[in-house]
Amino acid sequence: MDVRGWGEILVTIAITVALGIPLGAYLARVWQGGRTWLDPVLQPIEGVLYAAFGVDRSKSQSWFAYAISMLFFSAASFLVLYLILRFQDVLPFNPQGLPALPPELALNTAISFVTNTNWQFYSGETTMSYLSQMAGLTVHNFVSAATGIALAMAIIRGFSRKSSKTVGNFWVDLTRCTLYILMPIAIVYALFLIWQGVPQTLGAYVDAATLDGAKQTIAVGPVASQEAIKMLGTNGGGFFNGNSAHPFENPTALSNLIQMISIFSIGAALTNVFGRMVGRERQGWALFGVMGLLFLAGTFIVYPVEAGGNPAIAALGVDQSAGPLQPGGNMEGKEARFGIGASAVFATVTTATSCGAVNSAHDSFTPLGGFVPLFQMQLGEVVFGGVGTGLYSMLVFAIIGVFIAGLMIGRTPEYLGKKIEAFEMKMSSIAILVMPFIVLVGTAVAVSATAGKAGVANPAAHGFSEILYAFTSAGNNNGSAFAGISANTVFYNTALGLVMWVGRYWPIVAVLAIAGSLAAKKRVPVTAGTMPTHGPTFVILLIGTVLLVGVLTFVPALALGPVVEHLTLWAH
């Protein structure tokens, strides 16, 4: 550990906090219909889109109609992407002449990008044409992220409205999020990446001669445009197999810092939007505080254990101490240009959210270093989370937290003036329990089936961790991996595709049902017996609720994987 590493952590947090207020103010203005500086350019485009698709922007939808619209849009998006991937060999912008994807890989990839998971069983530079990367993957990076933010807005309206039968209009929310939020930021972001050295071209791959006279083909393409929304929309799917460890995706220390901040930016700002739209900004800061403390806890574990080195490598006589010529610590699987600090922070950021982009190989982390990214996903990725998904997941935990507190003091639980009753608790239970169910059942099937075990190259505890990580990543729509597992098989393509689909849409429908129920309720006046939900007590209660659910659900599985691997490693 060194001053630079801790400095990277503090700078990431400081800039995230600083961006939260102005970005939150802008997002709130977009959703509340206020005027923005982009209106003169975007309002005509917005109007044309509504007219072309027959959308009445003044018409608000019930939660059920909102859910049907979202599911219909997602199904149509999946079909379009699947067809692009299956027929990319006959479609334009394929200068490398790459073949079409086989059915099971196209199926998995289409589900992956529509659900904002971006799990990849392939090397992008040898599998995807430019058209597939742009019209397929990049477009779905935008719309899947916009869908998540739209759903966060729906549940915020559930808390902010009273005696209302509607939660907004999905088509308007989707359009405004894409036009007014994601597109403008992504354009500026892509230009920044081009300045840093990220390629953006439709030209063919470049052939170069090495120093010994051999020929080397250097893959290029429209990288910057995909990289920008990959981070901003917490998508995570890389243009190259190396993802953000590849120098064409993440060339400098500055680009690495901006990528981490961009992963957090919208998720963090949405807590501020929540506070503004419910009329109590302190409520948003309470949620931000919970997320921030959980992030710090994860980072303060990963960085020291990775900086401490790996005893198995030390036993081979390898010097892992820091010095003038080496960074020290467990540098296996990490980029020398980023080192331990930036790699540890990036791993924590990308699994605290639903991003899944990586600048190091999580599979080569020490057991405790890999434990943290795995456990953060198993908490439901509520630490700022995916764009939109992190906020509404944390609000579900808040509902459960105030319900527990209400039982403890013998009062009907309420949150922001809305009574939490049987229906909200049933839907909250569904939203929370679906993920552990599909993750644990999927893992159990994989470790029992011959086809599941066939892809595991590492025996014993670490192999189990790789399978558990794969299903955890898919079930939480993250997309990162312990890459030691060979998952491009019919079994894993199908099983993980199903887990991604259920993990995305089953909780979403439950959350929208909660939003509709809350919007229909009147506000309960604040009394002396009302539990404050903006102070330290509530922050501690909410952290405890998140950890309690995660620990009770996953600790037995974690004990079989990273925990026993850690004990075994240090026993020698």
In terms of topology, how is this protein built?
Layout: H1 3-31, H2 39-53, H3 63-86, H4 103-114, H5 124-127, H6 130-160, H7 170-196, E1 206-209, E2 215-218, H8 223-232, H9 253-277, H10 281-307, H11 311-314, H12 339-352, H13 367-378, H14 389-409, E3 414-415, E4 418-419, H15 422-448, H16 450-453, H17 460-475, H18 490-519, H19 536-571
Antiparallel strand pairs: 1-2, 3-4
What does this structure look like?
It is a single chain. By secondary structure, the chain is mostly helical. The chain has a domain of 258 residues. It is built from 19 helices and four strands. The strands form two sheets. The chain has a two-stranded antiparallel ribbon. It has a two-stranded antiparallel sheet with strand order 3-4. The protein starts with a helix and ends with a helix.
